[in-house]
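Protein Record: Sequence and Backbone Structure Tokens
======================================================
Tokens: labelled as protein backbone structure tokens, with as many entries as the chain has residues.
Task: work out the structure tokens from the sequence, keeping to the layout shown below.
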Amino acid sequence: MKIVCFPHFYYLSEASRLVEIGKALRGMGQDIVFFTHGGSYESVAKDEGFEVIPVQPTMSPDRAEDYKAFNRAERGNPFRDSFFSYEELKAYVRQEADAFRQVGADAVLIGWNLPSYLSVQLVSIPIIVQQPGPFTAPFYDKKMGVFVPSLVGWLRHLPMDWFVNWLIPRTKLWLAPFNRLAADLGLPQYKSLLDMMAGDLTLVMEHRKSWVLPAKNSSTTGRVMRRFSTGPRATATAGHVTPSCRAQCRIRWPSTSTHLAPGSIAAWVCPVHLACCGMSSISSVIWIFRH
């Protein structure tokens, strides 16, 4: 089986996680190749012996900084703007689809390479996504969203947890260019942000014991998809790791823990955040693909 790993290579955390998954799959005899739109951390995959194939358009460092700033809610208006303009997204999706055809991809594994949600549909192959729990609908089906009251003090007196669990599964943040292009390509429209983020196979990054994945489809999206908890994924860090962070990473957290960028949607609704995590092996991912 030929699996394309397609991380956003300007994120070290994402690149290192997908490389670890790629190594596990390669050890099982799968044919693994990496695609890239450019990025500072392509060497993470190359150093492990993976072929890294460039796919146009190439994202410049300046454009990547804008992308990451939007992801951190430091720029733009999430109710009006998105990660890509319609014109950008159209170029990315068509080039990706052509690249998938050229290598004969059987499936694509992504982190935050968002155009692939559309491009895989043009070549009729499944998409595997790795997500923190707060980017999956079952998280809110189980009413696990928690509003952080310290951000807006007077809201702590309102039923904000209920509001978060009702709102997030219905929000359509960032979707405008994706749904516009989907309509032009004759593809289904996304009902919500979480509807788009759902993979055909979703690898959930939280620890297995933190929450039980429902057997049925999500009531908020109705999507037919398989979900597995892989446990926290080991993440590389480019800078110094403080002793307190190292101590946290040795703890087997019994509650939800996620890898988040400050300002992201998930950071508003999940009570525990880890800057780096090395708590679990890749064994659960191997189990998924063997079974």
Observations:
- The chain has a mean pLDDT of 77.
- The longest strand covers residues 31-36.
- Strands lie at 2-6, 31-36, 52-54, 107-110, 127-131, 201-204, 226-229.
- The chain has one domain: 2-290.
